[in-house]
Amino acid sequence: MTKHPFPFLKLLSAIPFLLAFNACFAGEVTVYAAASLTNVLGELAKSYETSHDVKIKFSFAASGALAKLIEAGAPADLFISADTKWMDYLEGKGKIDRGSRKNLVGNSLVLIAPKGKGFPVRFEKDFDFSNAFKGKLCTGQTESVPVGVYAKEALSKLGWWDSMKDRVVGTDDVRAALDLVGRRECIGIVYLTDAKISNVVESIAVFPGDLHTPIVYPAALVTQSSDAKAFFDYLKGSSKLFVKYGFKEVK
């Protein structure tokens, strides 16, 4: 048998094939998650991938938009919603593993303003909120995006909704609302965790929890992927990092 005149070149020529061969054995998990989880899940996935032969892929958006995609057959392995409504919706359609469902973390609702544009506020019915500031109020779409639904609940319970509804700008997800506030186009209602990651907005006040439905993030498997199950278990054991980002532990 004739020897290859440059053995190292023969080895180099084989590397692309070897990489492709190895890639076939690397696991992959596709996670559909609420936009407010973008930063914390990104950090958790990066840490997980360093010690597991698995690639974690994300689709971040409003929970309702993601739920509709999963209903239509989008290739998700794990779904994490920012409210129970959309998880209930998928459960009713038989699109999730009901037995795997778990409330992963909680959150708080906060009123924010562009940095330097904060103002005093009292979460009481006699407070004249509509005259406390000028301009628009940005949050998620109040009929479908969880943060907007929570915001409308709180404003309604305070008796502020009717005087504010024509000034509310509903966005596709909470990060879009945060971005508009950061661009100094409005004040906003977002999650505490979103306010914490921005250096161009300021938190005015956190809404009392009794003004809206408790904010919880239910998670559930969509497929029976063993890699997805393992990553889900990892998330359930990562409460310290979630708390670092401003989320709350739930029972």
Q: Which helices and strands, and how do they pair?
A:
Elements: H1 7-23, E1 27-34, H2 38-51, E2 54-61, H3 63-71, E3 78-80, H4 84-92, E4 102-106, E5 109-114, E6 136-140, H5 146-157, H6 161-164, E7 168-171, H7 174-182, E8 186-191, H8 192-197, E9 201-206, E10 216-221, H9 226-236, H10 239-244
Parallel strand pairs: 1-2, 1-3, 6-7, 6-8
Antiparallel strand pairs: 3-10, 4-10, 5-8, 5-9
Helix pairs in contact: 3-4
Provide an overview of this structure.
Helix content is 39%, strand content 23%. With 251 residues, it is of the alpha/beta class. It folds into two domains: 7-106 and 216-244, Periplasmic binding protein-like II (D-Maltodextrin-Binding Protein, domain 2), CATH 3.40.190.10; 109-211, 3-Layer(aba) Sandwich (D-Maltodextrin-Binding Protein, domain 2), CATH 3.40.190. It is elongated and about 55 Å long. Mean pLDDT is 91; it is low at 1-25.
What is the structure about, briefly put?
The chain is α/β, with parallel strands linked by helices and 251 residues long. It is built from 10 helices and 10 strands. The strands form 2 sheets. A 5-stranded mixed beta sheet has the order 2-1-3-10-4. Strands 7-6-8-5-9 form a 5-stranded mixed beta sheet, with helices on both faces.
Architecture of the largest domain, according to CATH? 3-Layer(aba) Sandwich
Cα shape: elongated
CATH topology of the largest domain: D-Maltodextrin-Binding Protein, domain 2
Low-confidence parts, pLDDT < 50 over ≥5 residues? 1-25
Please report which band the strand proportion falls in: under 5%, 5-15%, 15-25%, 25-35%, 35-45% or over 45%: 15-25%
**Could you estimate the helical fraction of the residues in percent?**
25-40%
End-to-end distance = 68 Å
Q: Topology as H/E string? A: HEHEHEHEEEHHEHEHEEHH
Rg, rounded, reads: 22 Å
Fourth-tier CATH superfamily name of the largest domain: Periplasmic binding protein-like II
CATH class call of the largest domain:
Alpha Beta
Strand order in the sheet with the most strands: 2-1-3-10-4
Number of strands: 10
* Number of helical segments with 4 or more residues: 10
Going by helix content, strand content and strand pairing, the class is: alpha/beta
Largest sheet: 5 strands, mixed
